[in-house]
Each structure stands twice: as C-alpha cells, then as structure tokens.
Amino acid sequence: MIEFAQLSYRYPDQPQVCLDQVSLALPAGSFTLVIGPSGSGKSTLLRCLNGLVPHFSGGEVAGSVRIAAYDPIALGPRVMSRHVGMVFQSPEAQFVLERVEDEIAFALEHAAVPREQLRIRVEEVLDLLDLAPLRDRLLTTLSGGERQRVAIAATLALQPEVLVLDEPTSQLDPQSADDVLQALVRLNHDLGLTIVLAEHRSERVLPMVDLVVALDRAGRVVSGHPREILANSPLCPPLITVARAAGWQPLPLSVKEARPFATRQGLAQQDAIAVGKTGEAGRASATGPTRQQRPYLEIRSLEAGYGTTPVLRNLDLTIAAGEITLLMGRNGIGKSTLLKCMIGLLRPRRGEIRIAGHSIAGRDVAAISRELACLPQEPESMLFADTVADELRTTLRNHRLPVNEALIDELLAQLGLSERRERYPRDLSIGERQRVALGAISITRPGGLLLDEPTRGLDYEAKAMLGGLLRQWSREGTAIIVVSHDVEFVAEIADRVLILGQGGLIADGPPWNVLGNSPLFAPQIARIFPGRGWLTASDALQGLQRG
Amino acid sequence: MTPRSLLLVHPVTWTIWLGTTLLTVSLTRNPLYLLLLLFGLTLVAETERPTGRATPLDPIFFAVIAVSFGALFNAATIRYGDTVLVALPASWWLIGGPITLEAVVFGMINGLVLSALVAGFGAFGTAMPISALISLVPRAFYPLAVVMSVAVTYVPLTIRLAGQVREAQQLRGHQVRVWRDGLPLLLPLLIGGLERALQLAEAMAARGFAADPPSNQVRMMLVGGLAALFAGLLLQFAWGQVVAASLTLLIGTGLILWALRESGQQAPRTRYRVYRRGIRDMMVLLGAGLTLIAVLAPWPGRASLAYTPYPTLQMPIFEPLLALALMGLLMPVAVRLGDHYLP
Amino acid sequence: MHGNLQAKICNLKWSDMRDRLMSGMIIGFTTVIGIIAFLYPFWLPTVATGGVGGAHAGTAPVILTTLVGLSFLALLLEAQRAAEHALLVALLGVLVAMNAILRFIDVALPLPGGFSPIFVLIILTGYLFGGSFGFLMGTMTLLVSALITGGVGPWLPFQMLTAGWVGLTAPLCRGPIQLLGGVGRYREVLVLAVFGALWGFGYGAIMNLWFWPFASGPVEQYWQTGIGFIETVRRYLTFYLATSLLWDVAGSLGNGLLIAAFGGPILRVLRRFQRRFAFVLRHVPLSEGL
C-alpha cells in the first residue's frame, strides 16, 4: 500500500537532510505508529504521504514514495487528498467553517461531489465517528477530543484509503485522547482503513498497532513489529523499560500482557495491608528528608467561581516551601479556577490567600507574579521577543528590575538553553519554547511556581528534562504546584498529590497513597505490581533488584 | 415562539427584496412615504432579529441624527426658498444669508432617504445569517468566500486568544501604562495568528483545497471590458455621443459579466446547504413585485412619489393606493408572524 | 525524481511581462473610472447645466454607480489571483479576522474621529506581500467586520473599495524607501507612517464624497436652484469643515502614529514569516505591478 524507496529530503536553506534514505513498506489495512524524538522528522515523513512535502515546503527530494499506484511527490496534495486523509495536531487550527456539518462537507463541495452523494457521505462519516448528535453545533463549543473527531470525519468524507495523523492527541486530556484513539481502532478494524499515526506517548497506542516506525535525529528509520522495535528503542514507556530490564519475553506491550509476568515472579501482591509499608519503604529515599515545613502558600476557606454557582467551596490548603504538589482532577472541576485565584486573575468571593505570609488581596497580577510565577497552559502566548535572552530581559523590565546579564546566563544554563541564547524563540522545539517561557516567568527568582498542564505536547526527553528542573528548584526551596492529567509525570515528580472533586479536595497525601490504588489515576507500574507501592519505572527497577 | 434565527425565505429572495427596497427608497422624495417606509423597514428588522441578538444600529435613532444633520446643513448652505425664517449677516463666511423653511425641509428629506436606506440594509443584515450571506457570493469569487468563512470562524477564536495573551503577559509583570505597551499584547497575537494560518493552510491543502487563478483569457476579457467602460464614459460625458456611449458601455458590461461567469465555471463546486424556495418566497416576491410596479408603472398616483419643497413649501400629496403598494415590502413580517399557518 | 521543485514555479520572462501589463491595465482603468465617479458631484452640475449632448442628469449617478461596481468586481477578480495558494487564503482569513476585531474595538470605543487601527495591517501587508494582497486585506476586513457587527449599510461597498485602494497602493512606498536606503531601518517605518497619514485624509475625503449626495440632495436640485460649479465647491467646503476636518486630522494622525509605533516590530514578524514561505509568496502577481 505505502512504499518508500530510498527517500531523502532536505528543507530549503538547511545544511543537513531531514530524512535520510528512508525505505519502508506498510501493507494495506495496517495500523502503524511512528515514533521518534521531537525534531526527528516524524511530521516530515507523514507529510510526504500526501505531497505536502515538498509541495508546501519547497526543498529537495530524492528517491520515491508510492501510495498504491500514486506518486504524491509528482501529484501534489490536491490529487492526493482523494487517497490520503490527514489530521493535524492542533484541534483549533484546522477548521474553515463554523459548524460541524458544513466543515465535513467543505472538502466535498470543493471537489464538486454531486449533491445526492454529498449528503450520503456526510451522513456516513457522522455516524462513523459518533458525531450525529453534534452535527449542528458550532465548532468553538466542542471539546478538543470532539474537534479532533470532526477533523477525522472531515478528511474521511473524501473516502481516502489511508488516514495519516500527526500527533492528534498531544493537545488533549487522557479521556479525550482515548476517545480519539478508540475511534481510530474502530476505523482500522471495521473499515480496514490503513492508518499511520505519529504519537509521543506510545503507551496508549502500542497495544493497538501492527507496525512501529522509529526515526532518529539523523533522519534514519527502522521499522518492524512493535516488540522488535521497542526492544531497542531509547524512547519507551515505563512498562517497556521495566519489562526490558526484567528480561520478560516476549516483550509485553500492555498492562494486561505484563501482569502474568509480575504474578509469576510473585511481585503482584493483592494484600492491602502491605501497601503502606512497602510503599513508604520503596520511596523513602526519594523524598522524605528533603521535605521542609515552612508554609509558603496558605489558602483559608476559599470560595470562588463564575456566575451564580461557586466552583470551589470552603477550600483549605497549605503548601510548604520546597514541596512539589500535584493537583489532579476531572476537566472542569475547578483546577484552573483555583490556579487563577492563587495568582490574582480571579478574585475569590470569600476566604483568604497568603503567599509567604502576606495576603494577596488588593495586589495586582503583575505584583503577585513576581513572587509566585505561573506558567499558563499555552506558554507560546507569552513569547514575542526577537531572542531568547530578550524574553528574559523583557520580564525584568516589566518588573522594573535591573537587567542582570549574569543572572540571565545562569538561568539559561539551568534551563539548558545557553546555546539558544540568541535564537528566535518561536523557531525552537516545543520543549525548548516551554523552557523559554519558564525562564521568562522565573527570572525574578520567585519563591513559588505554578505550572498548568506543563507536559502537553512534550516528548519523553523534554518531560524528563522538565522533571529534573522542577526537582532541582524544589531542592533550592521553591514551592512548586503543578496541575496535570499526566499520571506518569505526576508519579515521577510529586511529593504530594491533591485530587480536586466536586467543590473541594477529596484526596491529599503522598503519591503512593493517592495514586497507588486509584482505578483512575494509577500509573502503569502501579497497575502491573498492585500493592507494592511502586509508581515509576525506577521504583520498580530498584524493587526488582532488591528482591 | 418559533426559533427566530431560522431563515424563512431563500437568500436570493432576500436579495431581490433588498434590491426592490433600495430602488423604491431612492425613487421616493415624498416625506410621508419615506416615513412610512422607514417605520415599515424598522419593523421588518425587528421581527427578523434573532432573539438575543442586539440591533447594532437602531434605524430610528440613526434617522433622528441624519434628519437633524440634513436640516442643519442644508439650511445653512442653501439660500433658496420663499419662507425666510431668519437671516444671518451676509458677512459670515460660508454660511451667511437667509435661512429658509424650504431648505430645512429639503435637508430633512435628504436625511430621511438615507435613514430609510439604512433601515433596509439593517433588515437584510439581521435577517440573513452570515453563512447564508456567504452562500450568495458568486462562484467566480469562491476563494474570497472561503477567506470570509475562515475569517468569520477565526473571529471568536482570536478573541479568546487575545484574552489568553493578555493573561500570559500579566503573568510576567506586564502592565499597560502607555499606549505603546499594547505591543506585547499585539505581537504574540499576530505571531500566533500567522502560525495558525500555516497549520490551517496545511489542513486545507490536505483536504484538496486549491484555488484556480483566472485564466489569461478571462483576464483579457476583463481588460477589454474595462477599456470599453472607460471609452463609454468619455463618449457619454465628455463628447456627448449618447448612442455610441450606450453601445460601448453595454459591450463593456457584457464582457465583464461574461468574464465573471467564465471564471466561475472554471472549477465546478457543489453546495451542501441548500435553501428551499416555497410559498413564503412567493409571498415576499409578490409583495416586492407589487411595490415595484407601483413605483415604476406609469399611472397617475405615481406622481406623488416626487416632491420638492421649493420654491414655496406645500403639503405633500398622499395617495392611499400608492402607500398600500409600498407596504408590499412588509411581506417578510407577515411571513414571519404567520409562519405557523403556512404549509 | 531528483531536483528542485522551486524551478517549476519560476515563470518565464515574457509571460511575466504580459502578466504585469494586464494587471497594470486592470488597475489603471479601475482607478481612473473610480476617480471620475467619485468626483462626479463636482463636475456633474456643470455638465448638467451646460446640457452637453443632452445627457440626462438623472441617469448619470446610476450609470456611474454601475460602472464603479463593475470595475470593482473586475479588480477583485484580478486581485483574487493573490489568493490562489491555500496558504494565502488561510493567511488572509486569519489576518482579516484579527483586523475585523480591531475594527470592532474601533466601533465600540468612542475613539476620536476617523482614528481606526485597521489600516496598520492593511498598509503593512500590502507593502510586504504585494498590492493584490493589500487590496483583498482592505476589502475583506471591511466586509467581514460589517458582517460580524451587523453594520451592513449602503456605505459598505464604498468603504470596501476605498480600504482596498489603501492596500493596493501600499507598494508605492517601496520606491521612496529604496531611495532612502531604509529597508529594515526606522526610515522605512517613517515613510509608511507618512503614507498612512496621507491615506487618513484620502479615506475621509472619499467617504465624504459618498455621503455628499445625501447631504446635498439629488442632482435635479441644481436645475431648480441653479447653482453651478463654484457654488457646489463652496457648499462642499462648508460640509467638509463642519463634518470631516477634525475627523480626518484625527484619523490621519492616528494612522501615522500607530504605524510609527508598531510598524517596526510588526514588519519584523511579517518578514520572518515571509522568509519561511518565500517560495509561496513569491508569485504574488501585483506586487511588482505597482
């Protein structure tokens, strides 16, 4: 179905090739996962499938691509749109029209599909993706997951044989991401649609795919069965890391496949009494002693919300300096509301918030942010200067602080951005851009740091780097509060986990207590080794070594 | 109540209605009829307004301003008419001289004409959803219709983005002290918009979107048509060759319309949303047709459309039959209110 | 299958020449017809009273309006060539959305007179991406903002045409800027700011001329009251002083100041973007035509 033969590609004005002699063969009806670090050319590879590369990007191509009998490099995206559908990362920036139905019909109208057939096709894809109840809705009123399903429907309306998706779930929360991925599995199984999917978080997708294509930074590619590729891949979910270290064969790709190995080794204890003990023991070295008890942020009987019904009621919370606190909870439960109250973007109806002993009432956002820095969900909306260093200077000037170049150098070194100092921030990778924004808010050396969904769109490497950075800052005494859906990340860095339920906190404690037994929030490792109190790959590896 | 946002008649019917309204208003100088039209059209706008949507420009409010301004300006600059109200010293620059009642009335009529036109457009604008308006764009301008759709879709998104940028900048201590502080708000919005445009363009291309530029043949027709129009203009107004002028102008018009048609047929498209025509359209068209006949056909009552206050102010003639015919433009109100009783 | 795809896009020289010639002619004719039509309130009375060739004064406004409408359509179709690539369609859509919001602010806030922030982007994109792009940017901004605010009125086509002209003529700044050797420097922004300030007056004047027949009444009045050319100009002057002078001064100053303050950084952002997609933006046809 899809064949790459010695395909090389170089972007205009770039010294090195992006894809280097790629040869691949993907059979019809297969479900392929493309993995690789950011900037390794995953998107470029996918865009070769429908001719966006090189027709949309310029540059030089050698070698060939064939989709069935079609040559996308010669035919271009217009012709290829009939054979290859493509869905992109952003759930916002791929729509032309206001309403679901019109959006789905857009490509068909453009292709002059006769009206009777047009109606049938729109109905078909609406049903195929469970969108019929949403057909009249405005796209702006849909959730991210629903929008991505509309995007899939809109491409499928042209009845392509291949569906290509470029990180379609990276901007979504886990629940919406699952909905989208389930829809893909159904399309693959029921219609025999050939699917090519690029995705950072392979743990969610691995059990479903037939083939994995792995790219490296030099533009080279290996492909094969998921077990073969993941046996050697440097990027892998915690489950695979543990399984490889433990020598489990054949390599398990899902929690379900891994459980028998754990049980056979007698590591999956169902005994609830053991939880506390081993859990504490397993993690003691990681956290215990560094804990400081000086309160940094105090919230007393907070009530806040929009309109008539309060979102938060009577909430009390104290956060200590040097503590990493993770805030979790369903969408729309009030996590963002709480965050907005802490930094003064939303005035609470009742209650008091004190930062480092001083009430924030009556202080404006700019003044609070100097003491308690906040990284918003879309860190890009901060960046506009010509260089990375300029971004940091801008913040200092905003606060009317002296521009101290030594301080800037030091922070950039911490952020791993020293070499990027004079680059244009918007040209950097997602992870780097996020760190620039992090630098821009923390150059004032605040005592506390709030991060809203910081792992969105990050690959494993960038996530690890962010985790390390947060750990370092917390050791230096910064209080860190993170809102996240990403349980693996939470398990990795949290000292304390809070779960927000209807109106207030429903759980508060160390991660192994809160996450370990939760059916909803338990990370992969906790599910494989229930009752051991292990949450992360390193917990499990240490545990396995010991016994 | 029926949901008022629903479009009851075909967009093309609305367009014909608007055309008739504009023609009728511009042929009328009789203040009695103009007032009638103004109130009638305001009523149409009001019944068509979707619940919850504010009238952007109240036609009556606009009329008060336009009529006062018209009266003031005309009275101050026109020295004609028999009924002198007051005489300003002739030495006053530009405005010196007698102020006449006739000039005041003439100015008020000017204001009324403009207000009635605005009311007609207002009714049309509130009745038509934006998507219906875009569907009226001729096929030759398909890429521009897409641009319009994209823009309309991106307006709410951009507003949300602007809020996001404002919060993000506050979080790094940004405060608007002088107006140049707008830059940190504007630039991220612009950069974000450009990046979004790129992503959107890829998504559109991946779904087969590509506009076809007009062929050179079409452009030649345009050049020819414009040249003919220009020549016709000179013939008509500079050299006074009326017959030759009319002929040339017709040729030019024909060439340009033909070019539009040609370029519209270059790439076939279909439409998903179809608006049906039915009894309601017939009613609105009949109403408009009645009005059109009354203002164009040569019958005695038609003379009452014209009116001039000069040289001595007189009461305008009121012809009940003609007034009734003008009410044909109110048919959309009847359709909207009687929607339940229609099949 | 080895080679540089950009080579395919580059046009041959002679077809390039023909392209420019056709663009130039379409723009030229439209502009001349437009100027004649917009100035008709001044010369029509003289034509009418002189009774040249018995041209009936009553039909003149209809003829002229039709002509302007037709040439506007022709120009729009020609300028639409700028929107032939999906990227330019998307870019126009997104920028028009931004600009329409700016206009929304301008309508909602009681800003002094003709001070409108929409011209900054119209002029800057016209200057950088070419006259056609600027023309579409101007017309579409006015159209879309009218649609979303519900402000569709008889003035809309005139606003569209005039705002389009602003963008269409923006590439004229390239000459003076090159002469001053100021690309990328403050002089460049200065030239653009002066250009914007001039158009502040121009826009006001053209919109006045649209409104003028409603302020002065139909043409027949000249027959009845017997006022000639001088009289008309005197009246227009009064009208202008009473309604527009302050307005236009504010608009002109606003345009100039906004471009002077924000022009530099916005140009830098647009240029960065243009570099990334140089191969797409290269075949914008009218850019060299002006």
UniProtKB/TrEMBL annotation, chain A:
ABC transporter domain: which residues?
Answer: 2-242, 297-527
Full protein name: Energy-coupling factor ABC transporter ATP-binding protein
Alphabetized GO MF terms: ATP binding
What is the top-level taxon of the source organism?
A: Bacteria
Organism of origin: Candidatus Chloroploca mongolica
CDD domains, alphabetized: ABC_cobalt_CbiO_domain1
Per its UniProt record, what PROSITE patterns does this chain match?
ABC_TRANSPORTER_1 (PS00211), ABC_TRANSPORTER_2 (PS50893)
Keyword line: ATP-binding, Nucleotide-binding, Transport
So what family is this one in?
Belongs to the ABC transporter superfamily.
Annotated signal sequence is none
Concerning Pfam families, the annotation shows:
ABC_tran (PF00005)
UniProtKB/TrEMBL annotation, chain B:
Which segments cross the bilayer?
A: 7-25, 59-78, 84-105, 112-134, 140-162, 220-237, 243-261, 282-301, 321-338
* Keyword terms: Membrane, Transmembrane, Transmembrane helix
Q: How does it sit in the membrane?
A: Multi-pass membrane protein
What is the superkingdom listed in this entry's lineage? Bacteria
Q: According to its UniProt record, where is this protein located?
A: Membrane
Q: Please state the protein's primary subcellular location.
A: membrane
Spell out the InterPro entries in the cross-references.
ABC/ECF_trnsptr_transmembrane
Recorded protein name is: Energy-coupling factor transporter transmembrane protein EcfT
